[in-house]
Design goal:
The complex is a heterodimer of chains A (451) and B (1084).
Chain A: H1 2-28, H2 43-69, E1 73-75, H3 78-84, H4 94-118, H5 121-142, H6 164-183, H7 203-220, H8 227-237, E2 248-251, H9 263-270, E3 275-277, H10 279-287, H11 293-296, E4 312-316, H12 318-331, H13 337-354, H14 360-368, H15 382-392, H16 398-406, H17 427-432
Antiparallel strand pairs in A: 1-3, 2-4
Helix pairs in contact in A: 2-4, 2-5, 4-5, 5-6, 5-7, 6-7, 7-8, 8-12, 12-13, 12-15, 13-14, 13-15, 15-16
Chain B: H1 2-14, E1 22-30, E2 40-43, E3 49-51, E4 57-62, E5 67-71, E6 78-81, E7 90-92, E8 100-102, E9 108-110, E10 118-122, H2 123-127, H3 134-137, E11 145-149, E12 158-162, E13 175-178, E14 181-183, E15 211-217, H4 220-223, E16 234-239, E17 250-262, E18 275-276, E19 279-280, E20 298-300, E21 313-315, E22 339-351, E23 356-368, E24 375-389, E25 394-409, H5 419-425, H6 465-471, E26 474-492, E27 495-514, E28 525-547, E29 552-577, E30 588-613, E31 617-628, E32 644-654, E33 665-679, E34 695-696, E35 704-705, E36 724-725, E37 733-746, E38 751-763, E39 766-770, E40 779-783, E41 786-802, E42 808-824, E43 831-836, E44 841-846, E45 853-856, E46 882-884, E47 903-906, E48 912-922, E49 925-935, E50 938-941, H7 942-949, E51 962-963, E52 967-969, E53 980-981, H8 984-990, E54 1002-1004, E55 1007-1018, H9 1022-1026, E56 1031-1045, E57 1065-1066, E58 1073-1083
Parallel strand pairs in B: 1-7, 13-16, 36-40, 46-52, 50-57
Antiparallel strand pairs in B: 1-4, 2-3, 2-5, 5-6, 8-9, 10-15, 11-12, 13-14, 15-16, 17-22, 17-58, 18-19, 20-21, 22-23, 23-24, 24-25, 25-26, 26-27, 27-28, 28-29, 29-30, 30-31, 31-32, 32-33, 33-37, 34-35, 37-38, 38-41, 39-40, 41-42, 42-48, 43-44, 44-45, 45-47, 48-49, 49-55, 50-54, 51-53, 55-56, 56-58
The chains are: A mainly alpha (451), B mainly beta (1084).
């Protein structure tokens, strides 16, 4: 009796279990699917977010560290006062690093894979060009950094560090591949349009951009080998920016809401009073009777003439290209001083046009009439080129690279006896990646920054 | 049903019918004459017996001259010899020392039968605490529990952790259960966890007056039947339902009025004014720091400005100086007011306890905080009923409750619109109130005459506190419905079927406003954040009792549970207001809508068996099998075994006092339990890797949200900055728990001891493992990581005096200690961020360390064997000496060097907690006091760090002095002898909270406090009876009247991130309160 009962109880339980489990699936249904999160993204949506993130990172965090270290701006209050005197902690760099890696580069890699799989060649080209740009920022500010073994979480959780030289090889390869894709006979069934805020999907403009960016890459490597200056000029010869209209600029606009405004406009409003134009920057402008003091030296507030909510933040410009040209021509094995002077003047003129000062054309003529700006009977000096580039590229992160490469303008440490020459690795990377180089401080040098 | 037949078979086997000479009938009742159902009646030394029916009646055929044994759980066993009569009515006396405790699923058990720790707190002990939040009312009253209130604002949350943490980054707070069914105790954040307002934990909706009792189930064996959520321990609330005995109508009314004050402020300097390097700066300069000249050298010029009606400050030698009008020192803390709370609780009880009775209650709490215009109101309407029907075979218990809470809160913490942030940074020479009599309502305090905000930084910087009080309000409203129905049908003697269904439904609507020119969002903002929560918890169980033999009883429960919890959140953020005075979506230039959801379901089978042998040995076994939705990987075919897990528990209780004959020992018990609890994922949707609508930001600004320029953007990086790779191969996690306990009562109850030691281990945790973002992701979901806890709880009760005249003195100690250690995180991962600031000072789990360590920058310390050098290859040594910068060209010559990178700089977990309650009672008069001790544990005083930077901390009053830092010089390891200035260059760089060294602001947060003090008098007079008043009580309650601590900031019982896992952070937290209340209660 008991045995029989146990048997039937067992049978009943098994039946219940079987019926129960098949009913189980319908009971749970799709309850573990997040109805608000799509599992796929269109190339257009991916391009918009990664382009935005790259520009906001360059125009936000990176521009501030560059401008604080090179004394274009002064950290007047709170954390920025500490950064201004070189109190930068590894933890302060987590966000910028994450925006570069798990943000911009990761999304661009996804965009590249999706584009290549479907032969969306213009997307494929842009994805590579922007990767090259982001990776160069990383290589310039941090030196060695992961790339070749990164972006494959199933393979490794701790990617190795490529040397800065390896990264530069990767950057140049990316740019070559980008130009190949952009030049491909079939642009693909999908081409970018409005979600490419920078060029609206123009393959021609992106190709010019690649040429100028490759020139910038060679310029950065100039200290290592002077031949790189000629290589930079050769890249520009492939077709650089013809005018400011070719600038790689990203126009912001929050429509008055604040969110979506250009990074400096947001900062000046939301962190008002934390950063002001630096005495050093203003004193150079004053010393040269520079009319750009009125706009570039303006108080950082809501009515700043340059840092408007709708500012089109340039990440690679005709002005910069002209100064690059001037520098390369001066430093080439066979210097071309006349060419350098021409490029130098074109750079200043382009800057004046951008600077939103009144009567820019007349002001420019007066300005270059000064011997302190343009020597009458002598070639322009490297110091003059770099000083004018420093003035023209107000708060551009390229300025920190320029100062490290050339030492111009001459800066005095604001505390201690050295000025930062690189960034330290972020705390997250120190904690999570055993390959992160140890004992790095702000005053060390990256690969191309040889003494 | 097959199970039932099995049990019936066993019943038949166990109860053999003996040869009968006579039939005895009768009723078994308790002392009050109430029938005892299911009482055992046995013929001594035989297996012949029966149990009483629902009317307490029995009938049994017995041999002549038999000796009958009557027993019932919780009552003294009686042996009665048969007399001539065939009717034998028996009254069983309650076993005096045996409590009956409400245990898992709401079943009542004799406390001596429990092989695990469960501590019960009566409802009266909760109401006498006079707190709005029921969690606070438990503070100091239960061993094994740590309760931390997040601050002193009205409506602030409190965290409750039982016996340590079991989850690396999931919920570690106790599960709340009402009448056996789960309710939600979430604390959602509308803004970043370090900013916004102090939110509520949703258990705040419970009115302590509606609570009959609270049982705290601490270990896995106790809580195993609650499944996944039970691993964290369970706070089981039993609500009042009606007349417990007898019939009739009674009315109860209780009221209290409480006044609260700020209990501890932050020490500020009062000597120096706004300025830099000793130079005076006017308020029109926008300067932020108080590194100006001594204020006793400054005078007003007598020309009134928007900043000060007395004029601007100038030096003594300035011709404009009016020497008759020296600089004024303003007290910033005048912004705090006396708070006021009034409570009314009204209840009608009626009906017949035997048949149908009810309790209808109305409660209202209305609180105004110590910060003007911070309010919290709660209204509860509760109907509890019990009903016995169908010849007393069908029992219905039910509670239905409607709660409405609404509040208005003040922004705090790490926000330039945080009240304490701007308030404490204000130089002593600036009056935020601008001399107005009623700055809370007078715009002259917080508006400049040109319409901009009046701040000491000329409209920029930080919000004026009165601006915050008026112009950045946060309001919320919760409408909540809690209901449960519990239906039991007694099928046959000793077998019942129970169905229990509960639901918790609420809608929370939040509105955070920022008027134009609020510093956090100068363009103005409006956030409408709506939560719709709903759960359904349903059980169907069969419960039975079987007397297996005359000495061996068995209780069993078998059944199933369906549970689902659904959360839908819609946040609409509008930015860019067009006009002032109209913070409304019809006035914003953008509207960003963010939907989110959080749905989970589970299906479970559960069972338990309890054996009782001769009333001294008890064995309990439980088993539960869960199927949980959050382990389902949508990309894979459904397989029930992927989401299924079984876990057992066992507990044994040995009441050795039943076998010993010590006169002085009333009761003695040893217990042991072992349990396991399985777990699913801490959150749903971790099994896929979707795209998200990102917010591109740099951490300093609002950034860019999408749609941007009416274009759609997607990224794997989510709006919160995390890029999480899901896992399709998750398996359940496990927590195992072992507990040993000892309980005794001595000298007729004068000494009671309940001692437990326990150890628990949680492994295969499902966590978002932080990974290098160079992998494309910032986090990867993995089954990885383990943590373990060892701990001890002691409850000690003493009655030093129990005098003949009725005077009684009781002392009760609740001692809690535990240590939860992170055993491992993941391969190559030593730290895991769980909250706070990722750079400045965060709370991290660190492998090998206790839960939730403070992790930040530190001074360089010697770490080599000789104790004279720092070796970068060796780990940081927290007890090493400072390594002093001896480079004469350095700006920091003579000052300590900085350690490269962040290190573990503090442990917020206390060593132990001790609550000591002394109570004295004499003829209706009761006086009691609860002293609460938290020993050990550290807190990051980020407030101090920031205030040092601004020259506002009182510590900076030594700014004109020098010091020689104790340490060794970097180059030669010799003791430091270099004198260094403690001036602005120190306090704004190395001595700054924004600088590299957060460790210097980590302080001991131990405290001793007079948590609670009660004096009450129960009026006992003849006129009461005449007035038909059955009870009249008046009382006085004080809370937090005295705190002793070395912590230099606000009250160290505080938490920047609320009740979340990241404890031990103070960054401009709101101060705490002390209060006095008068209570009055009457019962008709």
């Amino acid at each position: 009796m008991l045995i029989k009962n146990i048997k039937s109880a067992g049978l009943a339980l098994m039946t219940t279990a079987f019926l129960g489990l098949s009913a189980c699936q319908s009971y749970f249904g799709d309850v573990n699917v997040d109805g608000n999160a799509p599992l796929d993204a269109s190339p257009a949506a991916l391009l918009l977010s990664s382009e935005t993130r790259l520009v906001y990172t360059i125009g936000g965090d990176m521009t501030r560290f560059s401008a604080l270290f090179t004394q274009q701006v002064e950290g007047f209050a709170r954390q920025f006062q500490v950064y201004y005197t070189y109190g930068v902690l590894p933890g302060d760099l987590n966000t910028m690093w994450d925006n570069m890696y798990s943000g911009t580069l990761a999304d661009l890699k996804r965009l590249q894979a999706k584009s290549d799989a479907n032969n969306y060649n213009v997307y494929g080209g842009i994805a590579r060009a922007l990767q090259a740009h982001a990776l160069m920022m990383v290589a310039d500010y941090w030196g060695d950094a992961p790339f070749s073994t990164g972006f494959d979480i199933d393979k490794t959780l701790q990617p190795t560090y490529d040397t800065q030289a390896q990264l530069y090889t990767t950057i140049l390869t990316l740019l070559t591949d980008a130009r190949t894709k952009l030049a491909a006979a079939t642009p693909g069934s999908l081409v970018p349009s409005s979600t490419d805020i920078i060029y609206g999907g123009s393959a021609a403009k992106w190709t010019k951009y690649c040429n100028v960016l490759a020139a910038r890459a060679y310029l950065h490597l100039g200290k290592l080998d002077a031949a790189n200056y000629s290589k930079a000029l050769a890249e520009l010869a492939k077709g650089g920016f013809a005018a400011s209209a070719d600038d790689a600029r990203f126009g912001f606009s929050g429509g008055g809401a604040g969110v979506g405004d250009a990074p400096w406009a947001q900062f000046n409003s939301q962190r008002a009073g934390d950063i002001i134009p630096a005495p050093k920057y203003k004193s150079i402008l004053t010393g040269l009777n520079d009319p750009r003091l009125a706009t570039y030296g303006a108080t950082m507030n809501a009515s700043h003439p340059i840092f408007t909510p709708t500012q089109a933040v340039g990440i690679l410009t005709f002005t910069e290209q002209k100064f690059m040209e001037a520098e390369c021509k001066l430093k080439s094995a066979t210097p071309d001083t006349a060419g350098a002077r021409g490029a130098y003047l074109a750079g200043i003129q382009s800057s004046f046009n951008e600077s939103k000062i009144a009567n820019a054309a007349t002001a420019y003529t007066t300005y270059i009439g000064q011997a302190t700006v343009v020597p009458q009977n002598a070639p322009v000096t490297l110091e003059q080129v770099m000083t004018q580039k420093y003035l023209a590229m107000y708060t551009d992160p390229e300025v920190f690279n320029d100062w490290r490469r050339t030492g111009f303008p001459t800066l005095t440490p604001l505390t201690g006896n050295a000025i930062p020459r690189r960034l330290v690795y972020p705390q997250t990377e120190l904690d999570l990646n055993g390959n992160t180089p140890k004992n790095i401080n702000l005053f060390g040098r990256v690969g191309w920054d040889i003494q | 049903m097959k199970k039932c037949s099995l049990i019936l078979t066993m019943l038949l086997f166990s109860i053999t019918i003996a040869l009968a000479q006579r039939t005895i009938m009768g009723t078994v009742t308790d002392a009050k004459g109430e029938a005892l159902i299911g009482a055992a009646v046995l013929v001594k030394n035989t297996t012949t017996g029966t149990v009483t029916d629902v009317d307490g009646k029995y009938s049994l055929d017995v041999p002549n001259n038999a000796l009958l044994v009557f027993s019932y759980v919780g009552y003294m066993t009686q042996e009665i010899a048969l007399s001539a009569s065939n009717v034998l009515n028996v009254t069983l006396a309650e076993a005096q020392l045996q409590e009956v405790i409400v245990t898992a699923l709401g079943t009542k058990r004799e406390s001596k039968a429990l092989g695990y720790a469960a501590q019960q707190v009566g409802g009266d002990k909760l109401t006498e605490a006079n707190t709005t939040n029921v969690v606070d009312a438990l503070n100091g009253k239960v061993a094994g529990v740590q309760i931390t209130s997040s601050g002193g604002t009205a409506g602030a949350s409190s965290r409750i952790v039982l016996r340590g943490q079991t989850s690396l980054d999931g919920n570690n707070q106790a599960l709340f259960v009402i009448d056996g069914l789960r309710i939600d105790n979430s604390e959602f954040g509308t803004e970043a966890n370090t900013a916004g307002v102090a939110q509520s934990n949703r258990a705040i909706d419970i009115n302590p007056s509606d609570i009959e009792s609270v049982t705290v189930l601490k270990g896995a064996a106790a809580s195993a039947l609650y499944g996944v959520d039970g691993a964290r321990g369970v706070v089981m609330i039993t609500t009042k339902k009606g007349n417990k005995k007898g019939k009739g109508l009674s009315i109860e009314y209780n009221t209290s009025v409480t006044t609260t004050q700020i209990n501890k402020t932050v020490p500020l300097q009062t000597k120096y004014g706004l300025g830099d390097l000793g130079k005076h700066f006017g308020f029109n300069t926008g300067l932020s720091t108080s590194w100006g000249p001594r204020l006793d050298t400054m005078f007003f010029d007598g020309v009134p400005t928007d900043f000060d009606p007395n004029g601007s400050l100038v030096g003594k030698s300035n011709p404009l100086a009016k020497t008759s009008s020296p600089a004024k020192i303003y007290d910033p803390f005048t912004v705090f007011q006396n708070g006021l709370t009034t409570q009314h609780n009204f209840a009608i009880m009626g009906g017949d306890a035997e048949k149908t009775s009810f309790r209808l209650a109305f409660g209202n709490t209305s609180e105004t905080g110590i910060i003007p215009k911070n309010t919290f109101n709660r209204t509860n309407i509760t109907l509890g009923t019990t009903s016995n029907m169908a010849d007393n075979k069908l029992h219905l218990r039910s509670t239905i409750q409607y709660v409405k809470t609404d509040s208005r809160r003040i922004t705090q913490g790490n926000s330039v619109s945080g009240l304490m942030l701007g308030l404490l940074r204000t130089p002593p020479s600036f009056d935020n109130a601008n001399g107005t009599a009623d700055p809370n309502n007078d715009k002259k305090a917080y508006y400049l005459s040109d319409g901009r905000q009046r701040t000491y930084r000329n409209g920029v910087g930080y919000d004026n506190p009165y601006w915050i009080i008026n112009n950045t309000p946060y309001t919320d409203q919760v409408n909540r419905f809690l209901g449960n129905i519990d239906l039991t049908y007694d099928v046959i003697k000793g077998l019942s079927i129970n169905a229990k269904v509960g639901t918790d439904i609420y809608q929370e609507n939040r509105l955070q406003k920022y008027e134009i020119n609020s510093r956090a969002v100068p363009g103005g903002r409006l956030v409408d954040d709506r939560y719709t929560y709903r759960n359904l918890d349903a059980y169907l169980t069969a419960l039975g009792t079987i007397a297996l033999s005359k000495d061996l009883n068995m209780n069993y429960t078998v059944g199933g549970n369906l549970y689902g919890a659904y959360l839908d959140n819609l946040t609409v953020q509008g930015d860019g207001l067009d006009n002032t005075n109209f913070v409304n979506f019809n006035n914003t230039k953008s509207k960003l809508v963010t939907p989110s959801m959080r749905n989970q379901k589970s299906l479970s089978f559960l069972g338990s068996v309890d054996f009782g042998y001769k009333s001294f040995l008890y064995l309990g076994l439980t088993g539960r099998n869960d199927f949980v939705s959050n382990l389902i990987a949508p990309s894979k075919p459904f397989n029930a075994s992927d989401i299924s897990f079984f876990y057992p528990s066992a507990n044994l209780s040995f009441v050795f006092s039943e076998l010993t004959k010590f006169k002085w020992m009333d009761y003695g018990k040893l217990r042991i339990s072992m349990g396991q609890v399985g777990g699913g994922a801490p959150d749903p949707y971790l099994t896929s890797t979707p795209y998200n609508v990102p917010v591109v930001s740099d951490g300093w600004t609002s950034g860019v949200s999408f749609p941007f320029k009416s274009l759609y953007g997607l990224s794997v990086k989510a709006a919160n900055g995390n890029t999480t790779k899901g896992s399709t191969t998750l398996k359940p996690s496990k927590t195992t728990d072992t507990e040993l306990g000892f309980e005794t009562k001595l000298f007729r109850g004068r000494v009671t001891v309940d001692f437990s030691v326990y150890k628990r281990a949680s492994s295969d945790q499902i966590i978002r493992v932080p990974v290098s973002s160079t992998t494309s992701y910032s986090h990867q979901v993995l089954n990885s990581g383990s943590l373990s806890t060892k701990g001890m709880d002691i409850v000690l009760g003493l009655t030093p005096i129990r005098a003949e005249n009725g005077f009684k003195w009781d002392v009760n100690f609740n001692y809690t200690t535990w240590r939860t250690t992170i055993e491992s995180l993941a391969d190559g991962v030593k730290t895991q961020f769980i909250g706070g600031f990722s750079s400045l000072m965060g709370v991290y789990n660190i492998a090998g360390q206790p839960y939730g360590q403070l992790y930040g920058g530190a001074f360089m310390r010697t770490n080599d064997a000789s104790g004279t050098k720092f070796d970068p290859a060796l780990p940081y040594n927290p007890s090493g000496k400072f390594v002093i910068n001896d480079n004469p060209t350095s700006a920091n010559y003579g000052r300590p060097l900085v350690h490269p990178g962040n290190v573990n700089v503090g442990n917020p977990n206390p060593d132990y907690l001790l609550g000591i309650t002394n109570s004295f009672s004499f003829k209706g008069f009761t006086l009691s006091g609860l002293i609460d001790i938290r020993s050990g544990g550290q807190m990051w005083n980020g407030t101090l760090g920031a205030l040092q930077n601004f020259g506002m901390a009182s510590t900076t009053e030594n700014r004109e002095t020098t010091t020689i830092f104790e340490g060794v010089k970097a180059t030669d390891g010799q003791p430091n002898n270099i004198s260094s200035k403690l001036d602005q260059t120190w306090y704004t760089v190395l001595g700054s909270g924004f600088g590299a060294v957060a460790s210097q602001f980590v302080e001991n947060s131990s405290f001793i406090r007079l948590r609670q003090m009660n004096a009450s008098y129960k009026v006992n007079s003849a006129w009461l009876t005449k007035a038909k008043i059955s009870e009249l009580t008046i009382g006085l309650t004080g809370r937090n009247l005295w705190v002793k601590t070395d912590y230099t900031g606000v009250d160290p019982e505080t938490s920047l991130t609320g009740a979340r896992n990241s404890q031990g952070l103070d960054y401009f937290n709101m101060p705490n309160t002390k209060s006095w209340a008068i209570n009055f209660g009457v019962k008709f």
